[in-house]
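Still learning. Show one?

>
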Amino acid sequence: SQIKIVEIPETVRIIEQGAFSECNLVEKITLPSIGDGKNNTHLGCIFDSSNNVPSSLKEVIVTVQTCIPERAFENCDMIERITLPNTVVSIGKYAFRYCHELKRLNSDEDGVFNIPELVTIINAYTFQECHQVIKFTMGQVESIGEFAFMNCNLVEYFNSETQYKMEIPKSVKTIDGVAFNGMLLIKEVYIPETLESIGEGVFIRFNSLEKITLPFIGYGDYPSPFQSIFSQKGVPSSLKEVIVTVQTNIPENAFANCDSIESITLPKTVESIGQNAFYNCKGLKRLNSEEDGVFN
């Protein structure tokens, strides 16, 4: 078939497997939902039984579906533009995993992914290896799953208008392990006081990170609790400033061997500091101070 554009009206409820098996040159498809309405949740099921999407396909517009299923676009590394309804409330695991060439999500600008504002959960592996994204925006997200944004290496703006800054939404309560692995360009991270839990390795391979603000420093089993949110190899050598906003009991070995950090600010409400909390912090110049050499 020579068909390059396919438009399926919103009134269509079910698209059977292989319905568009002859559309090998299609470049753009508009359809009400992803999947065959049965067990197959992948876009490719409407092309063939092996979920193979035509290499010519560059743009997908979904018009009705409010729950994007698991693996909906997984491995669709030819697609460059995806538009979802503003009414989407959930996105399943692996939904955009390995979409290496995806440049736009609900956006008219390359590199911009606008996650629908009603989405409250970013599931595990959702955006893993979306290599073209530069900016993520989101609404009232409450939880971020493991590996959700792993290897999104070119991100410069994460829910922020400041370049190279990540601002976690105030609505987020939990961040699971390794969620942001590999955001190599981010220099500053801000986590609001409302966060309740954070997993191990969340900021592994944040090789440009210079400053982080967070409510508590972590509770992992790594060489130090603070290192637990990075990796067993330690915090990034680029990291110079840490601001803790809530935690009142600083645990044992809290910043032990974090020798790159130069400035640490703790809440005025801190009641206890554990043994070896700042052990071997060779580079530390300021503690609750704006002056080098002063530890308050």
Notes: The first strand starts at residue 5 and ends at 7. The chain is about 0% helix and 20% strand. The mean pLDDT is 95.
